[in-house]
Amino acid sequence: MTHLVKAVVSLMERRGPAPRVAPPRVGADLVLRDYARIPLDLYRHLYDAVGRPHHWTSRLLPDAALSAQIHAPGMAVFVLEADGRPVGWFELEASRQGRRTRIVHFGIMPEFRGQGFARHLLARAIEAALATGAEVVTLETNSLDHPAALPLYTEAGFVCVDKRFVATPAIED
């Protein structure tokens, strides 16, 4: 029997230009890679490292289904690297209806948290979303996500426009 965990999901929106955020001073070369077709093994590594503690399950799919979702038209995955190591990543979905782009997933790898990367990467995610022609950038966060997520999004100008309650399968080790 699958154990379910309850969560409050907040739908957030933001309008206007991306915030100006300086990259963290880390003594490493930072590169933001835009993957037109991210390799499935890399995607799974990023998704699991960031999402497992927060019960992310939407992309736990067989190869064909995962590829159909993340390689679909309008989807883009970006990975921030420091000296070739993944620091964090985000996934965008440009809307087919209107001028909206959704940040589907956003996260910092556990070993890089608390070093100033999140603000920088979120600003880059907003820039990339706006570059799709979006006037509105949206995302969802929930009460199971990292405790710094909601304050980070609010600081970056996102406002909550709706909430809903869900039950999601727990990831149990």
TrEMBL record:
SUPFAM superfamilies: Acyl-CoA N-acyltransferases (Nat). Residues 30-173 form the N-acetyltransferase domain. InterPro entries: Acyl_CoA_acyltransferase, Bact_Acetyltransf, GNAT_dom. The keyword Transferase applies. It comes from the Bacteria. Keywords: Acyltransferase, Transferase. One of its GO terms (molecular function) is acyltransferase activity, transferring groups other than amino-acyl groups. The keyword Transferase applies. PANTHER family: AMINOALKYLPHOSPHONATE N-ACETYLTRANSFERASE-RELATED-RELATED. This is N-acetyltransferase. The lineage of its organism: Bacteria, Pseudomonadati, Pseudomonadota, Alphaproteobacteria, Hyphomicrobiales.
